[in-house]
Amino acid sequence: MNQHKLNTSEVRADQVASQKLQTLKLGLDVHADSIVVVRLLDHSAPQPAQKFAPAKFLAWIKTQLPLAEQAHSCYEAGPFGFGLHRDLAALGVHNLVVQPVCLDEQHKGVNHDKSDAKQLALRLDRYVAGNAHALATVRVPTPAEEQKRIESRQREQLKREVTRVAAQGRSLLLTQGQREK
Question: Residue 138, class by beta-carbon neighbours within 10 Å (0-12 exposed, 13-18 middle, 19+ buried)?
C-alpha cells in the first residue's frame, strides 16, 4: 500500500478550496499612495502583509469576496475622509473606521505599516468574535455631512492663519521701533 503524506499547507489549501470560509477579516493601514493589508481567514493566524496601490486594492478585494460568506475590514480614521469606507461597503464588506491609537502596545519601538495592519486585523478578529472593546469605532458621516465638516474646518484653519500672520506683522513692526495704531 502506497501512503502519500500531505503536509499541513497542502491540507489547508485543500480545505479552503473545498469549502467556503465563514469570515474574511482584513486589517488595513491606509496611506495616500498605498494600502497595507493583513488577512485572517476564519480564525487562522494573520497572513503576511501585502501592499497595494489604492486602485489595485479594490480590484484585489473583489477577488477575495467569493472566498467567504462575510468579509470584514477596518482602518484608522485619518486625513483621507471616508471614501474608502463607502467603496468597501458598496462591495459588501462590513467595514469599520476606528479611532487612531498607538498600536505598539509592547513599546518595542517598532511601528510600521505591516505591524499596524497586523494589530488592526487581530483587534478586528476579537471585535467580530464579540469583544466590543477591541476597537473604538468612528461614526461615518454622510457625504453631505462630510462636505460641511470639511468647509467648517477649512474656515477655522484660515481664521487661525490670518491671526498668526497679523501677529507676525505686529512683531515685525515692534522690531523696527514701530507700533500698530
Answer: middle
Selection from 111, 64, 123 nearest residue 92 by Cα:
64
Q: What is the pLDDT of residues 98-117, one digit of tens each?
A: 988 876 666 565 567 888 89
Rounded Cα gap, residues 29 and 118, in angstroms: 9
Domain spans in the chain, listed from the N-terminal domain onward: 8-140, 141-181
pLDDT tens sequence across 63-98: 999 999 999 999 999 888 899 999 999 999 999 999
Pairing outcome for strands 35-41 and 50-52: antiparallel
Fold type of domain 8-140: Nucleotidyltransferase; domain 5 (3.30.420)
**Gap between the Cα atoms of 81 and 145, Å rounded:** 11
Q: Which tens digits make up the pLDDT trace of 152-174? A: 778 888 889 988 988 898 888 88
* Helix, strand, coil percent values for the chain (each to nearest 5): 45, 20, 35
